[in-house]
Amino acid sequence: MQKMRVKLASIFFFFFFFLFSSTAAFNITKLLGQYPEFGAFNDYLTKTKISDQINRRQTITVLALDNATIAPLSGKPLDVITDILSDHVVLDYFGIPKIKRLLENKKSSLLTTLYQTSGQAVNQQGFLNVSFDADGDIAFGSGAKGSPLVAKLVKSVAAQPYNISVLQVSAPIVAPGIDPNPSPPPPPAPKKTPPPKKSPAEAPGPSDEDADGPVADTPADAPEAESPEADAPGSSDSPASSPPKPADDEDEDEAPAPSKSGSSRAQVASAFVCVGMMTSLLSFFKAL
């Protein structure tokens, strides 16, 4: 009887191990592996074991850095890189539309990061501040008091609502006190300036055909209505050369969602298999 109980416990252990391992919502390493421009960031997530922590969660947002932007972290101790990148993992799902809705009624908001769960965070080092900057763009900074907004939201890289969202940011976010030898901050982005106004069109010079023809006796005799410049539409009347920008709410939908349907189908199939196995096991042991 004792041996039977041991066997039963072993079977249930493997059953639940199979259940939880087969229903993982996503794999951040495979997801970022589809984007070579984030190869260095993906490697750091693997070396620091942050990828394992991300994959164990059901809801997450990753603020990704491309290969050029993450370069200042190279050469730093691995534990420092771990702490910095842990602050780039938000413990909730945030697509661009959700962030904009969050900021509709408040100037800024604090987001909890993976670094907060490490037990090392002090003075709100484990939080990120998200707000609109002076240019009206979404920007992030450390949640520590007095920290500036240092990273602009660039774009949505990938999304699997409402499990994982990968957003690209323009610079590393380093909370005060995490890095003993911080890199100099990146130069501020140039302010957006409106295009220069076009000066009024000048009357065109005579064409080659006019040069060969007879010259009018006085400039007043030339009819102004026939001037080609007068007939041409002004710059304000010309149609836009590019299509209108899509609405903000479409950003989340347009972000790639790799293997979303495949993952959902696999989870459903795994659940049915597990339920079937459980039913069979219970029937078997009742028959004993």
Would you write up a description of this structure?
It is a single chain. With 288 residues, the protein is α+β, with helices and mostly antiparallel strands. Helix content is 34%, strand content 14%. It is built from 10 helices and 7 strands. It has a 7-stranded mixed sheet. Helix 1 packs antiparallel against helix 10 (260-287). The chain is globular. The protein starts with a helix and ends with a helix.
Q: Whole-Å distance between the termini?
A: 11 Å
- CA radius of gyration: 30 Å
| Low-confidence residue ranges | 16-22, 206-254, 259-266
Total number of β-strand segments? 7
The assigned structural class equals alpha+beta
Percent range for β-strand residues? 5-15%
The helical percent reads 25-40%
Largest sheet: 7 strands, mixed
Order of helices and strands: HHHHEHEHEEEEEHHHH
Output the number of helix runs.
Answer: 10
Overall pLDDT, averaged? 74
Strand order of the largest sheet: 2-1-7-6-5-4-3
Tell me, briefly, the overall form.
Answer: globular
Ordered list of secondary-structure elements with their pairings:
Blueprint: H1 2-22, H2 28-32, H3 39-47, H4 50-55, E1 60-64, H5 78-86, E2 89-90, H6 96-102, E3 108-112, E4 127-132, E5 138-142, E6 149-160, E7 164-169, H7 208-212, H8 228-231, H9 251-254, H10 260-287
Parallel strand pairs: 1-7
Antiparallel strand pairs: 1-2, 3-4, 4-5, 5-6, 6-7
Helix pairs in contact: 1-10
